[in-house]
Each structure stands twice: as structure tokens, then as C-alpha cells.
Amino acid sequence: MPVLCSSCEQKRAVLKRPKTGHSLCKECFFWAFEEEVHQTIVSARLFSPGETVGIGASGGKDSTVLAHVLKVLNERYSYGLKLLLLSVDEGITGYRDDSLETVKRNQQQYDLPLKIVSYEELYGWTMDAIVKQVGLKNNCTFCGVFRRQALDRGAMMLKVDKICTGHNADDVAETVLMNVLRGDIARLRRCTAISTASEGEGVVPRCKPLKYAYEKEIVLYAYFKKLDYFSTECIYSPNAYRGHARAFLKDLEAVRPSAIVDVIHSGENLSVREGVRMPVQGNCSRCGYISSQALCKSCVLLEGLNRGLPKLGIGKHHRLHGKILAREPLTQEEERKLKAVDF
Amino acid sequence: MAAPIAVHLEFGGGAELLFGGVKDHQVTLPSQSEPWDMKQLLAWIRANMLQERPELFVQGDTVRPGILVLINDADWELMGELTYQLQDQDNVVFISTLHGG
Ligand SMILES: [Zn+2]
Ligand SMILES: [Zn+2]
């Protein structure tokens, strides 16, 4: 017995929305999904007319849906935005090659300009080369830190006013949970923000228009719209801790679909007691990027790679920053500690 | 006895990686005394098709949370989920949401 759409009451429903429990047909679902993203954009005032907006595009489902929906809404509501796709090539053979092909197809399908910035051109290192040196244990640290800066640098090359990323409700809930589990108060406070203002020179403001969109709906939107996206796990990704957090959330969602927004809501409403020390943001004295230390994480990681001391940026070695800045040699003892890498 | 039925199975969103990287599978479910339902289909897939890490696909007698199921292009949550009785020529799609965004 087919279920009828609860909105138009004419067509056959194709999905049950996790957020509202409503059963909708394809057309009513597309409309509801797009309108909710529009509401998010309008109520948080994410954009202003005339802005150039870079969409962080990985070829995956979230950024593909984001690019498609932003293009639709920009036309439907005359946002007056100049949209473009911004991709990072980490230099992972067999993984990024395929996903970049997807992004290149998206560029044509959506008729949006595309800029690809590579780790190799920015840092002189591909992820393949980094993994050879640091092994599989810490490579996600490198990749994550480098990607954040890569998007910023790409955005600056293109004179982009804002970057938006495809983070969805499930991602945000997962990050809240991860920051609770790690006791990272500073990030916990920041991670639910829908947008970040420009935090300093070289840092482009960011926003997450899909912050309240459920992963299930994003995947079904892509499926029913037959959007072209790439899905496979990063071949270097062993992040078991995050995987557990994700699986835990999915288990909760299976019992109570609102668990995802509930966790986000909890994160949004946490307040940090006065007197809790927060890191003071400054700028990296080498590259100028925002940093709470004398050297930003990416410069420290890079220095470690270039000196053959891959552990330099992993863990706390702040007291060595002075030496690195002055380009002084490290003692044998210091070198010994930073060299050993567990594969 | 119910006659054997042919169903089309499709795996996507990364779920195909557990099935040798193949997305489309045309399968015939053997004749049995009762009609086939989704619960039996999942057990059959686990026994006959899954090539690796079954825990990434099934959990208990249902799919792992985070895998979406569509029966004839509709969310299985509208179709009775595990109790849905399969018909000849049905199309069942499994999409993983657990793979990279
Ligand atoms: Zn409808
Ligand atoms: Zn720096």
C-alpha cells in the first residue's frame, strides 16, 4: 500500500523525514529541503549581495549537494552571489584523483568556475610523500591542518569573500561529541557556530549552510536528483575514534531521530564559566596565519617534515618554537625524541 | 511453496566496497515455503554476497544504522522495513551514508 505525500496529498511519498516524521513525495521533499537551507541562510544572514562565495568542493555528497542547492537558491531568490568551486588536491593517488574528476564534472554540470589548490604547490609535499615519512598513525593531523589553510589560501588567490563548506547536522553533532570527549573547551564553544567571522589576516570567513540538514536527507536529495558524487573512504584514514563517535550517533538516531539536532542544541547552549582560560589568538610569526602559538600548526608540521623530524608538530613542543624561528639546530636529545615514528 | 523471485539489488555511497566494488546485482532468491521478506533478504545477502567486514553492513538482523534502504525507489521506513514482503522484479537499493562527505 503506497503512502501518500502528507504535503500535496497526491503523489506517492518516497521518504520519511527524520527531522519532522513527515512522509513526502520527491517534489515536495526537494522543495522542503531547499527552503530549509534558504531559511538557514536568511535567518543567520550568511551572505550579502555581490559577494564572491567559494564552495569547498571535495566531490563528496555534502559539497555536491551544497553546490547544487546554492546554485538553485542563488537563482530562485536572487542572492546576487558569484559562486565558485574551490577544491584541495591533497596528493593522494587513487583517492583524490577520482574525486577531483567528480569535481571537474560538477564544474561543467553546474557551470561554476573551479579552482584547485594542491598541497604540493602550497607546501612542497603531497600526502603520499607525507605518509611515507610519518606513517599512517598521524597523517590525518597533517592532512586536516594543511587542508584548512589550503582552502584559505585558495580563497585568497581567487579574492573570495566567504568560504562555505558542506558540513551537515550529523557532522556538527559528531564534532560536539568529539570535543566533549577530548575536553576541548575552546573548540566545543566554537564548533556549533554557523559562521566564523574573519579571524585575522589570511583567514577567510566560513559558513555551513547545511548545518541543520540531516545526512539522510542530503544522501536522498543527491540520490533522487541523480547528482554525481564520489564516495569512498580516504585510503589513509584510520581515525577510529571519530568512527566510534559517528557510529554511536547513528545508533542513537536509529532510536530517536531528533538525537542529532538535540546534540547540536546542547552544544549551542553550553556556556563556559568565567575564568576558564582560553587560548589567545595571535598570528604565526612565520606565515602570518592565525595561531595561538608563535608558530602556526601548519608551519610547525612543515618544519618537522623538512627537517626529517615528523613528530615535531604532533604533541606539544611549544618550547621549541623559539629555536625553530631562529633556525637554530636542536640538541641530539630533542632530535631523538622527534624522529621516532610508529607506523 | 512460493516460487523463486528475481530481485535487483543496488549498493551505493560506498556500500558497494563490501561487495567487491560492484554496484548492481541481479539475484534470484530460491523458492521457499513462505514469501521472502526484507529480514530474510538481509540474512541471505549476508550469507551469500557480503565479501568482507559484514559488521559494516548488518547489525543484528537489520542494516547497520547509517545505511539507507530504498524499496522500489521509496524509503523502506514507509514500506514496513524488515517485514516488507518482496515481489518478483523488486528493486532494492542500499546507500551508505558513512563514507566521506
Ligand atoms: Zn507531495
Ligand atoms: Zn605559519
UniProtKB/TrEMBL annotation, chain A:
ATP binds at G56, A57, S58, D62, V88, G166, D171. InterPro entries: CTU1-like_ATP-bd, CTU1_C, Ncs6/Tuc1/Ctu1, Rossmann-like_a/b/a_fold, TilS/TtcA_N, tRNA_thiolation_TtcA_Ctu1, UPF0021_CS. Keywords: ATP-binding, Cytoplasm, Nucleotide-binding, RNA-binding, Transferase, tRNA processing, tRNA-binding. It is found in: Cytoplasm. Pfam families: ATP_bind_3 (PF01171), zn-ribbon_14 (PF16503). Residues 53-233 form the tRNA(Ile)-lysidine/2-thiocytidine synthase N-terminal domain. GO terms for cellular component: cytosolic tRNA wobble base thiouridylase complex; mitochondrion. Residues 282-312 form the Cytoplasmic tRNA 2-thiolation protein 1 C-terminal domain. It is an enzyme of class 2 (transferase). One of its GO terms (molecular function) is nucleotidyltransferase activity. Coiled coil: none annotated. Pathway: tRNA modification; 5-methoxycarbonylmethyl-2-thiouridine-tRNA biosynthesis. Its EC number is 2.7.7.-. Belongs to the TtcA family. CTU1/NCS6/ATPBD3 subfamily. Plays a central role in 2-thiolation of mcm(5)S(2)U at tRNA wobble positions of tRNA(Lys), tRNA(Glu) and tRNA(Gln). Directly binds tRNAs and probably acts by catalyzing adenylation of tRNAs, an intermediate required for 2-thiolation. It is unclear whether it acts as a sulfurtransferase that transfers sulfur from thiocarboxylated URM1 onto the uridine of tRNAs at wobble position. This is Cytoplasmic tRNA 2-thiolation protein 1. It comes from Megalops atlanticus. The lineage of its organism: Eukaryota, Metazoa, Chordata, Craniata, Vertebrata.
From TrEMBL, chain B:
The modification 1-thioglycine is found at G101. Transmembrane segments: none annotated. This is Ubiquitin-related modifier 1. InterPro entries: Beta-grasp_dom_sf (IPR012675), Mopterin_synth/thiamin_S_b (IPR016155), Urm1 (IPR015221). Keywords: Cytoplasm, Isopeptide bond, tRNA processing, Ubl conjugation pathway. It comes from the Eukaryota. It comes from Megalops atlanticus. There is a cross-link at G101 (Glycyl lysine isopeptide (Gly-Lys) (interchain with K-? in acceptor proteins)). Belongs to the URM1 family. Its main location: cytoplasm. One of its GO terms (cellular component) is cytosol. The gene is URM1. Acts as a sulfur carrier required for 2-thiolation of mcm(5)S(2)U at tRNA wobble positions of cytosolic tRNA(Lys), tRNA(Glu) and tRNA(Gln). Serves as sulfur donor in tRNA 2-thiolation reaction by being thiocarboxylated (-COSH) at its C-terminus by MOCS3. The sulfur is then transferred to tRNA to form 2-thiolation of mcm(5)S(2)U. Also acts as a ubiquitin-like protein (UBL) that is covalently conjugated via an isopeptide bond to lysine residues of target proteins. C-terminal thiocarboxylation occurs in 2 steps, it is first acyl-adenylated (-COAMP) via the hesA/moeB/thiF part of MOCS3, then thiocarboxylated (-COSH) via the rhodanese domain of MOCS3. SUPFAM superfamilies: MoaD/ThiS. The keyword tRNA processing applies. GO terms for biological process: protein urmylation; tRNA thio-modification; tRNA wobble uridine modification. It is found in: Cytoplasm. Pathway: tRNA modification; 5-methoxycarbonylmethyl-2-thiouridine-tRNA biosynthesis. It holds the Pfam family Urm1.
